Amino acid sequence: xxxxLIFALVLLSASCQNEKEEFSADEIIxxxxxNAGGENYRNATIEFxxxxxxxxxxxxxxxxxxxxxxxxxxxxxxxxxxxxNTGYKRFLNDSLITVPDTMVVxxxxxxxxxxxxxxxxxxxxxxAVNKKMVGDAEINGMPYYQLKVTFSQxxxxxxxxxxxxxxxxxxxxxxxxxxxxxxVNEGGLRFRExxxxxxxxxxxxxxxxxxxxxxxxxxxxxxxxxxxxxxxxLLSRIxxxxxxxxxxxx
Length: 250
Known about the structure:
This protein is an alpha+beta fold. It has one domain (28-247): Clam (outer membrane lipoprotein receptor (LolB), chain A). Helices cover 23% and strands 45% of the residues. The protein contains 4 helices and 14 strands. The strands form 2 sheets. The chain has a 7-stranded antiparallel β-sheet with strand order 6-5-4-3-2-1-14, covered by helices on one side. The protein has a 7-stranded antiparallel β-sheet with strand order 7-8-9-10-11-12-13. The longest helix has 20 residues, at 2-21. The chain is globular and about 55 Å long.
């Protein structure tokens, strides 16, 4: 009887430990953001180059400013797009110019997209983000949480209908893979594999191998299996170059 009681207590203890190891979607994202830089994001100036254009983000607590700078092929004119808490502005050689409303939507979406991926996982706790645990997975022998992310219409931008799926390592709390389904330009599916991780001034950055799947009706949860089977097409590489970070001193 004594041994049965000890055995029951061991089982109960193991059960409690298993319960403690289970995290909610919010807790997983919190741990992932903290692991990647945490509070450093909120007071950082980040500059990087992406596809020949220069990008810059400036954050000061709740205030933010996102920039894209384009130099024409002749190296004469410079266009600077600025997205901030107060809206969108475009400058030509430092002079403010007027942009049609339809193009404001296009430019804003493009700038937000580049900064979004470059700064992941920061941003996954924004007010418009809806997070949900959808299961567990294993890729190349590594264990992952699968989290689905959607966006509310209020605050979710013009692409709020897009769906994202993140594979977050269960021990390291890093986003090693992600996939998304988008609807602009006739829609499509993408699966990204993170590589080249590096930490600069306490903030983690990665590049991505960008894969595509032709069948738009494919469930995002199936893309990891298709990836391991070699059935996804490598479309491009998403690389942020010459990354510089400056943290605001408290």
